[in-house]
Structure formats: structure tokens, C-alpha cells
Design brief:
The chain is of the alpha+beta class. Helices cover 36% and strands 22% of the residues. The strands form four sheets. A six-stranded antiparallel beta barrel has the order 2-4-7-8-9-12. Strands 1-13 form a two-stranded antiparallel ribbon.
Length: 279
């Protein structure tokens, strides 16, 4: 009897030592349906120019604003967008006399969804036609007007915009004058935290994020504190766009030049079901 009692006590003690049952997994978020003809705001990450950008050339863009469905992010900011140049004609004296102005048209193709799927895009509501680009696209920020009117400031802004478009952003943090000019320009555009954004370490992170976005690899930025680097990259490209558009208006050139940072509106062709990205 004593042996049976001892065995029973041992069994009960072993049961008490068992690990707690695993907790139930967090249920996956339900899928979201993005309706057909949902507007998508995309931003160019490279420069386009009539007669210089070749027909058939790939256009590098990303989604510029989160697309939400029922309050949930369905397509996150930074999602890669593919498009192609379908018409590109340079203007010169002869073409102007012949009433053949510069032409630049692109055709959006698709965007890559966070779950690996894709969504077809079009340039216009209800019809399949290319998007004709114009010098007036993207608006212009008056806060940079005074800087562009001053020859010295304009030269500095041109250099900053060129560095951003060429992917040489990190070097700006090592030059005190460039760093100060960049901080001033971003501040005029209302970018919060412009002083900390131009610190060398932050500029390097923004530079890396910009290169990753241009390569169409948003998912590589889905870990850690990459969101701040992506926001910094967007702010820099936005500055390049404002400077580029301001200069185009000052020069009143006959050709169409679309700087990086220009925002364009596309539309989804079909309704598409997506899994919400995990953030």
C-alpha cells in the first residue's frame, strides 16, 4: 500500500511540473478587398525627360500614400509600381515651327502587393490610355520661390536636387554648407525634424532606403526602425521634385522634364483581395 501511495504522489508531482499548454495563436487579420478604380498616388523616383527617356524604358515609382480599406492599410506607402515610357519626343526649333511640341507619355502596368501578388493599374478612370506628362504636373511650393530667385541659392538647390536624384545623398551630411542648405530647404517645405534628418547617420540610412525602394524591394525595409528611414527618403525625393518643378518654371524650357518626387495618380483595373501587411 505504501508503494502504491508513493507512486501516486510521484505521478501527481509530475503532472504539476508539466509546462502550461501553449497559448492560442493570434488570429490572422482578415483579407481586404481593394475595389476596382481605386485611386493610387504614386511618386517617381527617377527623372523623366522628353526625347531623353527612351520609349519602352522602365519608370521607377512607389506608392506615395497608404491605401486603406475599412481603416486597415491594404497597400502600404513604398509599394513598388511598374510603368513604361510609351512616347517620348524632344522639342526643338524645327518641331516647334511644325507645331510638334514635346511629348512624354507613360503607361502604368502594375504594383507589387505585400503578399506577393500584383494589381494591374491604368492611367485614367474608365478607359485604357497612356498618361500624358506635362511640365505643370505635381504643383509647386511657393516657399522655395525666394530661394530659386536668388542665383546663389538656386545653384545650391540644383546641386542638392542632383545629389538626391543621382543617389549620392549620404555625402551631403559631410559638407556643412550643403547640410545647412538642405535643412533650410526641408524646413521651408514643412518637413518635421529637418535638423535631425540631415545628420550624417540619418542621411546614410535614408540613402540606403532610397536605393532599396528604387530597386523595388520594399519588403527588405519591413524590419526594425526602417520606417523612419523610408520617411526621410520620401522627404528628400519630395524636395528634389519641388526644386525640379520650380526650376522648370523659371527656365520655361520647351521640353518636358519630370523630376524625381513628382506625384501621379493611377487607378486599379480590377478589384483585388490582399492580406494586410504586418507592421
Amino acid at each position: 500500500m505504501r508503494t502504491v501511495a508513493a507512486c501516486l504522489a510521484l505521478a501527481l508531482s509530475l503532472v504539476g511540473c508539466q509546462t502550461a499548454p501553449p497559448q492560442a495563436e493570434t488570429p490572422a487579420k482578415p483579407t481586404l478587398v481593394v475595389p476596382a478604380e481605386t485611386s493610387i498616388t504614386a511618386m517617381t523616383l527617377t527623372r523623366l525627360e522628353s526625347g531623353v527617356s527612351g520609349e519602352g524604358e522602365r519608370v521607377v515609382l512607389v506608392v506615395a500614400e497608404d491605401v486603406t480599406v475599412a481603416g486597415e492599410v491594404a497597400i502600404p506607402k513604398g509599394t513598388p509600381v511598374t510603368a513604361r515610357v510609351v512616347r517620348s519626343r524632344k522639342a526643338n526649333l524645327l518641331t516647334m515651327v511644325a507645331n510638334q511640341p514635346a511629348r512624354l507619355e507613360i503607361e502604368p502596368e502594375s504594383l507589387l502587393l505585400p503578399d506577393g501578388g500584383s494589381c494591374r493599374l491604368k492611367a485614367n478612370m474608365g478607359e485604357a490610355a497612356p498618361l500624358a506628362l506635362t511640365r505643370e504636373m505635381g504643383g509647386s511650393n511657393a516657399s522655395l520661390g525666394a530661394l530659386l530667385d536668388d542665383p546663389d541659392s538656386r545653384k545650391t538647390l540644383e546641386s542638392l536636387a542632383e545629389a538626391i536624384e543621382s543617389g549620392d545623398v549620404a555625402a551631403l551630411g559631410d559638407e556643412p554648407a550643403a547640410k545647412a542648405a538642405l535643412s533650410d530647404a526641408l524646413g521651408r517645405l514643412g518637413v518635421s525634424g529637418s535638423e535631425s534628418l540631415v545628420e550624417p547617420n540619418q542621411l546614410r540610412r535614408a540613402d540606403d532606403a532610397l536605393k532599396t525602394l528604387r530597386a523595388g524591394k520594399l519588403l527588405d525595409l519591413a524590419t526594425g526602425d526602417a520606417s523612419s528611414a523610408v520617411s526621410a527618403a520620401f522627404a528628400l525625393v519630395g524636395l528634389a521634385g519641388e526644386v525640379g518643378r520650380g526650376l522648370a518654371r523659371k527656365l520655361d524650357a520647351p521640353n518636358i522634364r519630370i523630376p524625381a518626387g513628382t506625384r501621379l495618380t493611377f487607378y486599379t483595373v480590377d478589384s483585388v483581395t490582399v492580406k494586410p501587411p504586418s507592421r
